[in-house]
Structure formats: structure tokens, C-alpha cells
Design brief:
The protein has 221 residues and is of the alpha+beta class. It contains five helices and eight strands. The chain has helices spanning 11-21, 59-72, 98-104, 126-140, 201-211, and strands spanning 24-32, 37-46, 80-81, 143-146, 150-154, 165-169, 174-177, 184-187. The strands form three sheets. It has a three-stranded antiparallel β-sheet with strand order 1-2-3. Helix 1 packs across helix 2 (59-72) and helix 4 packs across helix 5 (201-211). The longest helix has 15 residues, at 126-140. GO terms for molecular function: ATP binding. It comes from Beta vulgaris subsp. vulgaris. This is SNF2 N-terminal domain-containing protein.
Length: 221
């Protein structure tokens, strides 16, 4: 899939690239005027073997299809200008930076806390009690849940009642038929305590140690 003059990050360029490669047929509805062209809806009728094709492993093909998937999102009713970027190039989850991640993080408004352990003589702050509770939960309660990297997109023609869907892994760039279940992932025990310097991580860890001791009374030293 070769890039063209329209750019793979724009709907029209993505349409042309995927059609030229034979990866998909498209059913579109356009609103034309003397000043602009609006993409009202787009539906990709994806070949069943799409996710097995060598072409889809190319970065250009994944970029083009990602552009179209954004336009096909069933939860969105917005119209896209054919020459606009539906998603800024920097919004590709695979390209996100650590700085962006930290900027996006917000503290919980009412995070649960633990009671102050009897062995702790210092009076911890509430955020330290919340951090200790979070660490205890991470040690005691490993979880499984659907992989959050997979996003579901409707890809059938707009006039279809039973819309066909496709799963798209936004991080790895993988695709999967919509009738398959999203794989579960095992959330590992533990985590990263990443409070800034001077906020009391040592006290938080001490509270974790005394509040969640390992039950091995006969263990050898």
C-alpha cells in the first residue's frame, strides 16, 4: 500500500490506498458543495481474509485502515472533511510518549484507604493511606479482564441492519473478526509506585509491609 498525494491520515487518501490494494471495498455517502466535500458516512466491507494478508502487516496499510476505522466508529455521528485528519497523527496509541501519559493521568477523587496499622507511629496523609490500599489490592487480588487495547468498529454498509464488525488492536495494529471474543489478559500482581520524590513512598511501603504480611509462620530464614 503506497502513500499518495492525499495522505494516509486523511479519509480520501486512506480510501484510495486500500481500494488500490484490493484490501477492501467501500460504500460511502458524500455531501458535495461548491466549497467543500463532507464524508457523511463510510462503511468498509472488509474481506474475510484481511487479517491474514501480508499487505496488512505493512505500516502504511495499518495507518490507512486506522483512519477509516475512526470514520466508521458506530458511536460517532460526526461528519469528516475529506481533506482533514480525523485523528491527529500524534494520537496513534503506538506513538504516545511518557510525557503525554503523565499529562493524561488524574488522581482519583475518592480513592479507598486503609486504616492506619498499629505498628505505624507516624500519622500518614490520606493520599498515603490510599496508596497503601492500592498496593495491597494489587498484591492480593490479581484480575483478568478483556484486553483494553481492542476497539470494536462497525464496518458493514450503512443500510445493513446487522452490521458486521471488526476488532482493532490500537497498540499492536492487529485485526480480528467481530464475532470473536476479545482475549482476556492477566493483570500481574504488583505495580509501580511512582509518587514524586519527597511525597512519602517509604512510609507507604512500610504500611504495605505491616498490613499485608506473608503468612508463612514456619518458613526458614
Amino acid at each position: 500500500v503506497a502513500a499518495d498525494d492525499f495522505g494516509l491520515s486523511r479519509p480520501l487518501g486512506a480510501l484510495r490506498a486500500l481500494c488500490a490494494a484490493g484490501l477492501a471495498q467501500v460504500d460511502t455517502a458524500l455531501e458535495m458543495s461548491s466549497t467543500d466535500a463532507r464524508l457523511l458516512r463510510i462503511a468498509i466491507v472488509v474481506r474475510r481474509v484481511l487479517w491474514d494478508w501480508p499487505q496488512i502487516r505493512q505500516a502504511a496499510a495499518r495507518k490507512a485502515l486506522r483512519t477509516l476505522l475512526v470514520c466508521c466508529d458506530a458511536s460517532s455521528t460526526a461528519a469528516y472533511d475529506l481533506d482533514e485528519y480525523p485523528v491527529p497523527p500524534s494520537a496513534d496509541p503506538a506513538d504516545l510518549t511518557v510525557a503525554w501519559l503523565y499529562d493524561a493521568l488524574t488522581p482519583a477523587i475518592s480513592a479507598p484507604v486503609i486504616a492506619i496499622p498499629d505498628e505505624i507511629r507516624t500519622c500518614p496523609s490520606r493520599y498515603q493511606l490510599a496508596a497503601a490500599r492500592w498496593m495491597i489490592d494489587r498484591e492480593r487480588h490479581p484480575e483478568r479482564h478483556p484486553d483494553p487495547c481492542w476497539f470494536r468498529y462497525e464496518i458493514a454498509a450503512p443500510d445493513h441492519d446487522d452490521g458486521e464488525a471488526i476488532w482493532y488492536d490500537a497498540v499492536r495494529g492487529a485485526f480480528m473478526p467481530g464475532d470473536r471474543p476479545v482475549p482476556d489478559i492477566q493483570v500481574p500482581r504488583g505495580g509501580i509506585l511512582a509518587d514524586q520524590m519527597g511525597l512519602g513512598k517509604t512510609l507507604e511501603c512500610l504500611m504495605l509491609v505491616v498490613a499485608n504480611r506473608r503468612d508463612r509462620p514456619n518458613a526458614d530464614l
